[in-house]
């Protein structure tokens, strides 16, 4: 078995796609394709539902246990390399699309890569998940709660460059940052603008109270 992996970093995703990973797995010679969108951290967890589903998909396609395990390990290794290596363009504010293609025997590998990266498939999967998140997407956070969030003046640690994952700019000394209850912090202005549209933390989807609660 050969596992072919490829990825695309979406540097300016829709707000609800920030921090997500979309995995599309295809097994050569098996028609259905596995696609799941989940938060990257959730996917990397040892027991995540998306990984279980991927496991089921690979087993269903007729792959033996060893190859299923190998495929998932290769995928996880690949994802951790993409998300942790300084040589890639990955940053927490983007979305990641990963294609896993498993090939048996001496099929044309280049052809296989072509299929695994079929944008159309990925596009459709993303469309489907838009529908699901549509309802919660446009509920603003309560103004009173937003006003009460703790603010402080950013004091830049000498050896780190942290970014505001809403505007993607680095935090600079003297800028006002606001911290959400989940401990994620952003530029005050960025967070306020964001929370006027969505009551979810852009990084972890922590839910702030809404206007009507
Ligand atoms: Zn910002
Ligand atoms: Zn958060």
Q: Can you walk me through this structure?
A:
Residues 164-205 form the RING-type domain. This is E3 ubiquitin-protein ligase RDUF2. GO terms for molecular function: zinc ion binding. Keywords: Metal-binding, Zinc, Zinc-finger. It holds the Pfam family zf-RING_2. The structure is a single chain. This protein is α+β, with helices and mostly antiparallel strands. It folds into 2 domains: 2-137, no CATH class; 143-197, Herpes Virus-1 (2-Layer Sandwich), CATH 3.30.40.10. It has 7 helices and 7 strands; from the N terminus they run βββαααβαααβββα. It has helices at 40-44, 49-60, 65-84, 109-116, 119-137, 143-148, 188-197; strands at 2-10, 20-27, 30-39, 95-103, 151-153, 176-179, 185-187. It has a 4-stranded mixed β-sheet with strand order 1-4-2-3, sandwiched between helices. The chain has a 3-stranded antiparallel β-sheet with strand order 5-6-7. Helix 2 crosses helix 3 (65-84). Bound molecules: zinc ion (ZN) (2 copies). Residues 164, 166-167, 169, 186-187, 190 line the site of one zinc ion. One zinc ion binds at residues 180, 182, 184, 201, 203-204, 206.
* Main β-sheet description: 4 strands, mixed
Which structural class matches the secondary elements? alpha+beta
Name the beta content range.
15-25%
Strand arrangement, major sheet: 1-4-2-3
DSSP strand count: 7
Q: What does the overall shape look like?
A: elongated
Overall mean confidence score, pLDDT: 79
**How many domains make up the coordinates?**
2
User: Which cofactor or ligand species appear?
Assistant: zinc ion
Radius of gyration: 20 Å
Reading the helices and strands in chain order gives EEEHHHEHHHEEEH
Summed up, the helix count is 7
Oligomer: single chain
* Uncertain segments: 112-117, 126-137
Distance between the termini: 54 Å
* Share of helix, binned: 25-40%
């Amino acid at each position: 078995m050969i596992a072919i992996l490829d990825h695309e970093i979406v540097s300016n995703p829709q707000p609800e796609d920030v921090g997500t990973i979309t995995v599309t797995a295809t097994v050569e010679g098996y028609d259905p394709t596995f696609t799941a969108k989940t938060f990257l951290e959730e996917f990397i967890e040892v027991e995540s539902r998306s990984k279980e589903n991927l496991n089921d998909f690979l087993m269903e396609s007729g792959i033996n246990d060893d190859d299923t395990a190998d495929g998932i390990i290769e995928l996880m290794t690949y994802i951790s390399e993409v998300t942790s290596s300084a040589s890639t363009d990955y940053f927490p504010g983007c979305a990641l699309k990963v294609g896993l293609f498993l090939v048996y025997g001496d099929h044309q590998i280049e052809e296989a890569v072509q299929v695994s990266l079929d944008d159309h498939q990925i596009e459709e999967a993303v469309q489907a998940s838009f529908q699901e998140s549509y309802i919660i997407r446009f509920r603003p956070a309560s103004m009173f709660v937003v006003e009460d969030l703790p603010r402080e003046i950013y004091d830049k640690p000498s050896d780190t460059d942290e970014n505001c994952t809403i505007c993607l700019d680095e935090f600079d000394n003297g800028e006002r940052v606001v911290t959400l209850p989940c401990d994620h912090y952003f530029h005050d202005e960025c967070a306020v603008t964001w929370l006027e549209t969505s009551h979810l933390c852009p990084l972890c989807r922590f839910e702030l109270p809404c206007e009507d609660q």
